[in-house]
Design brief:
β12, α7 and β13 form a beta-alpha-beta unit. The two termini are about 20 Å apart. The chain is of the alpha/beta class and about 375 residues long. α2 packs parallel to α3 and α5 packs across α9. The strands form two sheets. The chain has a seven-stranded parallel sheet with strand order 1-3-2-4-5-6-7. A seven-stranded mixed sheet has the order 10-11-9-8-12-13-14, sandwiched between helices. The chain is built from ten helices and 14 strands. Helix content is about 30%, strand content about 15%.
Amino acid sequence: MTDAVIDLTADQPTGDTQRERAWPVTDRLRILSIPASHPYPSAVWPDGVTVLADPTSPWWPHPALEPAWLERHRTTFDVIHLHFGYEHRTARQMTDWISSIRSISKMLILTVHDIDHPQLLDSRPHFEHLRRLLDAADAVITLTQGAANEIQCRWGRTASVIEHPPLGCPTTARPPQAQPGLLVDLRSPRPSLLHYDEIASGLEAVSELHGVDVTVLRGLGSRRRRLGRIQFEPTGPLSHARFETIIASHAIVLLPYRHGTHSGRVELCRNLGTRVLATDVGYLAEQSGDVFTLAASESELASISSLGEALDRHLTMPALSAEPPDELERRRRNIQHQHVEQLGRLLPDRPVPARPLPDHLDAACLDAV
């Protein structure tokens, strides 16, 4: 993670209420990231760029999506970088917000993480938001070429492709244990995830037929129980380090997505050396193609034969290793370099940071992503 996020209230007590934060005016280039405290946005900017801390805690709903907030704080930032967290806004509100950006003469960078929105059953309102944002953005980024092609086809806008930054910590990444095991995380009620009942028949039969131990993480309101080789664990919010440990202790993570575009879970498993079995949605395979194989559709996750064949393929493959720390760092630096290049194109008269490469890297690696 980059340490460029500046939180001026870190020594203040935290609570459930949201509080405004204030930032000083500085000569450094200042990014208003919406949001800033999520692992992805906090990983993409290097030292030398000031990423303003989220003005409230928790960050959602983000106050900077209000035109009045932008007007009040216009002197505290130079560029807006919008990632996600705007699905609750109406089309009119998004139009007004875009107009307010223009009225204060700020640049907008848009990263399209999701085309099919994971928090919505019906993504059509999100498509309307994307149409407006893509028309207005000064620079557009997405994570895969497939998503960039879809953006071009749907909305006629060219997007730069910058891969998902590593999420695994180099100091804690560890290979999976030798004992095969399958992890299914169903704690989130988000619409993009299939329910356990939709995959139960295939999962329960396959776990017995193939001798695979399965751990299913459920919300805290559920009951700890065991059904054959399946262990159900009521689990609340987890620290990033604890979640890494859980993932790395399993040979395979099952991602039963109903719909989606990209996935931070895929990236985390890639970093930690855990294989992924997922439904064929969005551009997950392109995001990290050599780490996992896919079931062809969500219905196949309920199919004993299809799920069994997929598990057999995984379990007979050579064990993966966690990405080496120097490779994680190389990728992070490449991604940060590419984001800085976006600033250089948008602000040609403004100096942008040129972070030196470590001794074991050369400039050619910057073209590898």
